[in-house]
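Per reviewer request, we include the raw input and output of the structure prediction for the construct analysed in the revised manuscript.
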Amino acid sequence: QVQLVESGGGLVQAGGTLRLSCTASGRIYSINNGGWYRQAPGKQRELVAHITTGGSTNYADSVKGRFTISRDNAKNTVYLQMNSLKPEDTAVYYCNVEAIGPLFKLLEYWGQGTQVTVSS
């Protein structure tokens, strides 16, 4: 009964921007740690960005200075602002959130994935 719904992906030119959103819906009480992963065709899944309950963040070296992860606890949402996009950023992006769900249990949830394509 708990779902993570991702949005914001699409096709952009190199140097462009996108903002991804990941919203927990259903029987959600609150969200804790959250992160974004990506997987390009033929490559392994990669951790892109992570944010703790307290707001501390970390990023993959490949996106430092270009991507920003943030959260809105009131909306049960985690965001990924992506600036100065490069063709090598092309991938399916997945959000991952720890949340207090049914029966007040802290569980891990995954989004359905959203495609980001950056053209040259």
